[in-house]
């Protein structure tokens, strides 16, 4: 029997095993015996890969997995405000304490309106520009636009949920 083995600190590990019989033919041991030293390495890599993929799937709510798991204890998920990240029980929560309305619950299938995001980015970009020398540079419009809006993905705004923050007169009834 001839045995030739090469081990390095990092795989690949090479194992060559040959056995000669009396008639000159080579007889190889079964593959299970040849690869037995690699079994622990394979098992460790398999468990590491499956564990990492599972954590990634739960963190990304892949296939609704996180929403499904949070649905087993919706009260705890809402107390921890996890429903602001993942839909729980079919609803998602939006929290904004700066605008005065605090929070709003919307159906989980709705997504944030990108038009409001683009407007906010434009305002932030314009605030970085120096003031104009022409004295005012145009009339300021007092428009009540939504503080937050949600709608179905891919829609043009015909169906949405919006929150408009506006001062209310004292004599409003």
From TrEMBL:
The chain crosses the membrane at residues 46-72. Residues 126-151 are annotated as: Disordered. It comes from the Eukaryota. Keywords: Membrane, Transmembrane, Transmembrane helix. This is PsbP domain-containing protein 7, chloroplastic. It comes from Sesamum latifolium.
């Amino acid at each position: 029997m001839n045995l030739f083995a090469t081990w390095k600190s990092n795989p690949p590990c090479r194992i060559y095993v040959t056995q000669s019989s009396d008639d000159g033919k080579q007889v190889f041991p079964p593959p299970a015996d040849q690869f037995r030293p690699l079994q622990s390495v394979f098992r460790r890599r398999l468990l590491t890969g499956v564990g990492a993929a599972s954590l990634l799937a739960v963190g990304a709510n892949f296939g609704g997995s996180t929403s499904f798991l949070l649905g087993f204890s919706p009260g705890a998920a809402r107390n921890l405000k996890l429903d602001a990240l993942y839909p729980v029980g079919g609803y998602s929560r939006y929290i904004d304490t700066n605008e005065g309305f605090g929070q709003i619950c919307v159906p989980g299938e709705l997504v944030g309106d990108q038009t409001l995001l683009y407007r906010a980015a434009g305002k932030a970009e314009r605030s970085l520009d120096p003031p104009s020398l022409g004295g005012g540079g145009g009339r300021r419009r007092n428009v009540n636009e939504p503080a937050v809006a949600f709608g179905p993905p891919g829609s043009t705004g015909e169906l949405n949920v919006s929150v408009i923050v506006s001062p209310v007169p004292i004599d409003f009834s």
